């Protein structure tokens, strides 16, 4: 992995130079302020983190380096990982080097197979996934070297990268094993050495041999890989890693955040939502029926899954990319048709709901991703967030590699009490 490491090192050195300049010239310059509303409101809109792997523009969506979604949506997941870490796409030999390494490390250790098979069946697949990542923690080379006192601070990132590649290499076999053993109740499929990482995942899930399914899995992995640093899962993973907990701990922690219904679990909730609509109105509901259904949900105090976002203020470009895929591959799917009708109905309702309080009435990625997985044969909804998690692990890993390369310290903001805040307000 020499070329990969060299390219990541170049990126870290470059970013490090920028940071040195900012600290030298502007260490005390104030670039923002915090309102009481932000302090009490989940820090929404507060600029408090630097994350160099990706950026979310409220109106244009996800950028990785300077590339917007249409410029990278046709890439392989491993190319995206390269881009997240090195800030550039790999050339042919660089890609081959990384792919060889991923293939070399893809096998699961025997103890993990035993662990997977013994997991209680009632656990949610996200719980299984997070537990399995945690169970691999003893594999961490970073941890072994750190405990042996063999690591200087400037080498931390290199061993994070070692751990990242080992972990990512194993995710297709690991996730597919959970799906097949516990949800399908079938035997796992063998790893296919001639396939790339994403195609192997599609192959090992074993639900659909069509090329278009591998294409969907590839796109799914690319679109979910990272979404800057402040979302629940990425932030959690980064905070945990900032204590020098290794990437297995950090990834498992991030996955636990992703498992919440306001975050990654929304994709599974969305599909149940659409199925609920079909059960009630049939597979071709009218827009007036959908309008009434959505209003009922809101009146019952429930959120409309797949709509809204803490940062985006337009339709999520990841939603648009999936919609284009759906239009090409399954335009007549009743689920896709209902997603389209909801897109027509929901924003208009949310715009005026709670006196216009919903900051973004438009769909996010979760409004459609599950529909496509379902259409292509992944019929167990509970697995959708695992798919999200496999992909998001690319981002967790890249963010921590870069942060440690830049010697970022342990994350530890200061919290205050109501009394402290009220005293401060009285003095202001
Ligand atoms: N349905 C109903 N109400 C909504 C809503 C929705 N889809 N989106 C926002 N609101 C409500 C909020 O609940 C909040 O009400 P409150 O003040 O009475 O609590 C109000 O509108 C203002 O919230 P807003 O500032 O717009 O949104 P937040 O940044 O607080 O929250 C999420 C963002 C994504 C959590 C919110 O829009 C939501 O709950 N959406 C539905 C769940 C979902 O799709 N999650 C996935 C998001 C994402 F893509 C991901 O991380 O995977």
From TrEMBL:
Keywords carried by this UniProt record: Acyltransferase, Transferase
Recorded metabolic or biological pathway in which this protein acts: Carbohydrate metabolism; tricarboxylic acid cycle; isocitrate from oxaloacetate: step 1/2
Documented EC number(s): 2.3.3.16
Coiled coil: none
Pfam families assigned to the protein according to its UniProt record, in alphabetical order: Citrate_synt
Molecular functions per Gene Ontology: citrate synthase activity
UniProt record, GO biological process: carbohydrate metabolic process; tricarboxylic acid cycle
Top-rank EC class of the record's enzyme: transferase
PANTHER family: CITRATE SYNTHASE, CITRATE SYNTHASE, MITOCHONDRIAL
Family: Belongs to the citrate synthase family.
Name the UniProt record assigns to this protein: citrate synthase (unknown stereospecificity)
